[in-house]
UniProtKB/TrEMBL annotation:
Species for this entry: Nocardioides yefusunii
Matches recorded under HAMAP family: RuvC
Cofactor: how bound: Binds 2 Mg(2+) ion per subunit.
Assembly description: Homodimer which binds Holliday junction (HJ) DNA. The HJ becomes 2-fold symmetrical on binding to RuvC with unstacked arms; it has a different conformation from HJ DNA in complex with RuvA. In the full resolvosome a probable DNA-RuvA(4)-RuvB(12)-RuvC(2) complex forms which resolves the HJ.
Family from the record: Belongs to the RuvC family.
Binding residues for Mg(2+) 1: D7, D141
Positions of Mg(2+) 2 binding: E68
Cofactor entry: Mg(2+)
Pfam family, one: RuvC
Name of this chain's protein: Crossover junction endodeoxyribonuclease RuvC
Function as written in the Swiss-Prot or TrEMBL entry: The RuvA-RuvB-RuvC complex processes Holliday junction (HJ) DNA during genetic recombination and DNA repair. Endonuclease that resolves HJ intermediates. Cleaves cruciform DNA by making single-stranded nicks across the HJ at symmetrical positions within the homologous arms, yielding a 5'-phosphate and a 3'-hydroxyl group; requires a central core of homology in the junction. The consensus cleavage sequence is 5'-(A/T)TT(C/G)-3'. Cleavage occurs on the 3'-side of the TT dinucleotide at the point of strand exchange.
NCBIfam families: PRK00039.2-1 (NF000711), ruvC (TIGR00228)
The reaction(s) this protein catalyses: Endonucleolytic cleavage at a junction such as a reciprocal single-stranded crossover between two homologous DNA duplexes (Holliday junction)
């Protein structure tokens, strides 16, 4: 399974692609940051992020997109740009029919380091070890994107497959119920016909 992890941000949007399966070694495919200039207005910055994410989706064709879930903080101006970037990332994945998931910062920290309160250095250190990298990924936004992708592979990937299987089986189950109802209806019609004089 291949996952594009996204650490949303208006100035720096971390992106990282990780490949693997739960219980097996994971590997780094690529990592980077989509940057926007504060000289641009917000709509043009969001278009830059959209084009950047689309380019990553085109190049790496991930099976899923995992994004950090945003929580409100005291600085509303900072959080607004992050939320807008996260929304763009969701749209990019959904437009292509790719499953999109969100993971909280504490889920990511716990999945990668075993401690939901780990600091950035601990998370980056564990990402470096898990992916067997020669050096820690930089900047921090890039390392965070990889941590989000790892979290999805370890925690969310299995659930995505279950949900997909349920979705694929749902029409079959519905068709089965429809066939049973139709057969019962026909049987009731036949018995009613037989009772007529």
């Amino acid at each position: 399974m291949r996952v594009l992890g996204i650490d949303p941000g208006l100035t720096r949007c971390g992106v990282g692609v990780v490949e693997g399966d739960p219980g097996r070694p994971l590997s780094l495919v690529d990592v980077g940051v989509i940057r926007t200039s504060s000289d641009l207005d917000v709509p043009r910055r969001l278009v830059t992020i959209e084009k950047g994410i689309d380019a990553w989706l085109d190049e790496y064709a991930p099976d899923a997109v995992a994004i950090e879930r945003i929580f409100a903080r005291s600085d509303v101006s900072t959080i607004m740009g992050t939320v807008q970037a996260a929304g763009i990332a969701m749209v990019c994945g959904a437009r292509r029919g790719i499953p999109v998931a969100q993971h909280t910062p504490s889920e990511v920290k716990a999945a990668v380091s075993g401690n939901g309160r780990a600091d950035k250095d601990q998370v980056t250190g564990m990402v470096t070890r898990i992916l067997r990298l020669d050096a820690p990924p930089k900047p921090a936004d890039a390392a965070d994107a990889l941590a989000i992708a790892i979290t999805h592979l370890w925690r969310g990937g299995g659930q995505t497959r279950v949900d997909t299987a349920r979705g694929a089986a749902a029409p079959t189950a519905a068709a089965q119920r429809w066939a049973e109802a139709l057969a019962a209806s026909k049987a009731a019609g036949k018995s009613a016909t037989r009772k007529r004089p």
